[in-house]
Amino acid sequence: MSSSLPLSRRHALALGGLAAAGTLVPALPAVAASQSPRAAVQPQAREGVLAARGFLRRMTDAYPQAGNPTLPQSYADELGLFSTAFVYDAALAVCAALAVGDFRLARTIGDGLVFAQANDPTHADGRLRQGYNVGPYTFYDGTPNLHGLRLPDGTANIGWQFGFLGTAVGDMAWPGIALVRLYATTGDARYRDAARRIATWIVENATNERALGGFTFGVNGGNERQTNASTEHNIDCVAFFTLLQRIDKQGGWASQAERARAFVDRMWSGEYFYTGTNDGATVNTAVLPLDPQTWSWLTLLEPRYVDALGWATDALGTTDSPEQEHSQLPDGLSLSGVTFSDASLRSTASYNGIQVNPHGVWFEGSAQLALATRTRAGKRHRQTSRTLLDNLRVAQTSLGLGQHVGGQPVSGGVVAASSVIDSGFGFGYFGVQHVGATAWYAMAEQGYTPMRF
Questions:
Q1: Could you give the CA distance from residue 325 to residue 330 in angstroms, rounded to a whole number?
Q2: What is the Rg, in whole angstroms, of the alpha carbon atoms belonging to the chain?
Q3: Residue 200 three-state SS
Q4: pTM of the model
């Protein structure tokens, strides 16, 4: 595969009318006056968390013949990425496992990340690749992948078939967050040391010396440094370096957190955060994604930035309904939430010959916003969180049925999107059970914020 393929795990999903932002409307019926809201909601939440935990376990244990170390396959087989495990999704699964108290699962995945870092086939500098293979399959051109994460020569099975060879800063910071949290939970020095190596790699390979500062995107599969920089990634770095400073007080990581924070501050419009910069010096105002709005609050808890949550709720809110021309929802089921970006609401793109639905719901983002608004005082934010969680529970039990991992049935996961949606950045999301969406949902139900102790 070409080394020039996009870096971020999000770009891996590019496989191939105008819509107004909707109001978040619960898909579940209102609780009757004679019922206790707590009694009505809590059993559903517990069932959802248990199902999510089971899904994360199943995706991690999908290839017993490959043994350990391993990582969770990111998507059900139906997406067509075979046994690909994105490190971002793996990191979220660690955090979700800690949130629900499944320490065995958290350590299994954490050990897989440590192995992948320590056994890269080309580099010995602490990097993680965008994705890895964790089980056997035959690629579309007939090329077999016979092994799991560990190859016979002891090296990590990097995702060369799809070109998932680059190293993005966000895809480093999130495993760093997960490993710091694992160290804080277990005291196992391997996790702390691996997190230090990640931090060192980011500083040495992605420090932006241009006007906007912060950290750039990372390197592509050819190890060429990229000049663009992401607000989302720099928020990740604020969280990671701040957490790392707590467990490694002599590392000087606080100054790196401040470097990333200064970039984030420069991206504030007064109402929402811009996406970043294409050249390291000029703000890109073209497409406005959700992640910087939710993650900025979860990381910073900065009152002057709280308007970003309201903007995300209003500007990116949408409802997917089977009456819409390109909806993939079954008859009788409408779901509400948020989409990926403002461009998603206007898109007429197609993926694999399927026209996107500009009203489609991005469930990973909905779970992020549910967690962010849950931590924010005020009646409106609490109602937004409840509504989003209600819709996520319905999606978990109603969508993605009959899907598989490693050829075997899998259930309990939250699909990436209610119908095919376009991110606005050249890649899409599909109605396939997803580790990332499920992990964020479990953390939202538990009120567990991974980006702060």
A1: 13
A2: 20
A3: helix
A4: 0.92
